[in-house]
Design a protein that fits this description.
Helix content: 55-70%
Structural class: mainly alpha
Number of domains: 1
C-alpha cells in the first residue's frame, strides 16, 4: 500500500461512512469487506461505488478515483471518459481535495462556494 495523504485518508474514511449509511446490500457488502480486506482497499471500493452512483457513470466509464490528473482517452476509447475523469481529478487536486472524494462535484462546489463567500467577505471588509 502507498502512503495516503491527509486528504486521501479523509476522503476514504468518508466514503466508507457514507456507503455504510446507504444501508441494505451496500452496508452488508462493506461490513464483510471490512472484516477481510485492508481498510484502504475498502475505502477505495466505497469511493468507486459512490462516485459511480453520484456521477451516474456507465459501467465502461472511469470514475475519478481510477485516474491520475494527466490521464487521457486513448484514440478510439473516448467512451471510457478517462479525460473527463482526469479533469475532475485536476480540479479536486487544485482545491486540495482527493481523487477519492465520494461525491466529487459536490465537494468542488463546497470549496468554490467557500472561496466566493471569503472573497465577498473581504470585499465587504475592504469597503467598510
Amino acid at each position: 500500500m502507498t502512503t495516503l495523504s491527509r486528504a486521501e485518508y479523509d476522503a476514504l474514511g468518508r466514503a466508507i461512512e457514507l456507503q455504510l449509511r446507504r444501508g441494505g446490500e451496500h452496508e452488508r457488502q462493506l461490513r464483510a469487506m471490512l472484516q477481510n480486506d485492508p481498510w484502504e482497499e475498502v475505502g477505495k471500493f466505497a469511493s468507486y461505488s459512490l462516485q459511480t452512483h453520484h456521477l451516474r457513470l456507465r459501467p465502461w466509464q472511469w470514475p475519478p478515483c481510477w485516474c491520475d490528473a494527466d490521464d487521457h482517452d486513448a484514440p478510439g476509447e473516448e467512451q471510457q471518459c478517462i479525460s473527463r475523469a482526469a479533469s475532475i481529478v485536476r480540479r479536486l487536486e487544485a482545491c486540495g481535495l482527493s481523487r477519492y472524494e465520494p461525491d466529487p462535484i459536490v465537494a468542488l462546489e463546497r470549496v468554490e462556494d467557500a472561496r466566493r463567500d471569503a472573497q465577498s467577505a473581504e470585499r465587504t471588509t475592504a469597503s467598510s
